[in-house]
């Protein structure tokens, strides 16, 4: 009997319903196929990882608050069992500076500058406020600088992510908070289509498109999250042929850049910008919520793909 571990975050530390949202239907589909499968917290010291034929990372979301522990676990689990997506790909994907590598290899993304020092961030914010920075659009007719977005390179769930005016003291304060993490700050111009809730997540299993979700806007102008807490409003949406081709291109380029094999699963977050066309926001290769309850047929495809790799 194939033994599969579905890796989640400790439900005591995280919203249990969220971390189990995909795991519940996925485990049921695996059980229907005769597999022995259960959800396991990556940080649980009691787990016998060698007892699994395969462990599948699904919602290890607290990795972002303790990346070093997660990395150490990844190394240990990798030595004891088969981990998917493969740890080398996960490590590459944990830090959003992979976006710069993909951009160099031809995948258009949101224009981003990276800051490891407060001084360089302060300069970039000042340039954005004047409308002269690479990050931060031109000032409008009234001289009001366009908003910028700050976020950490290692982050998920819009943690420490803010949509702010570059001259707002809250912007530099958020930057300092990210740097103190310790972390690296990503600074981007606001993409209006993202703020209008037009981000689309395209899902692929074994490189094949399965479904697409729109999740609505998340950031409140002036800082923080709309409605005060992280709340996606996921809806199944169509993906055009061009969008699917873009997502496939992201995976193909990832393989070229990393030299690694096709991932078991991927979520490619994109937005169509009126001025710049399709842009990659992020490629989630070890943590994406699949919203399986909205797409029951995908659960079966996913379970089959897991067992085919066991
Ligand atoms: N440049 C941007 N302009 C407008 N909104 C943004 C921008 N970058 C991110 N956002 C919003 O913040 C959310 C979280 O950012 P994202 O880069 O996806 O990081 P993560 O999901 O890993 O926390 C996005 O889903 C989007 O709603
Ligand atoms: Mg995201």
From TrEMBL:
* Organism superkingdom: Bacteria
Name this polypeptide is given? ATP-grasp domain-containing protein
Species of origin reads Brachybacterium vulturis
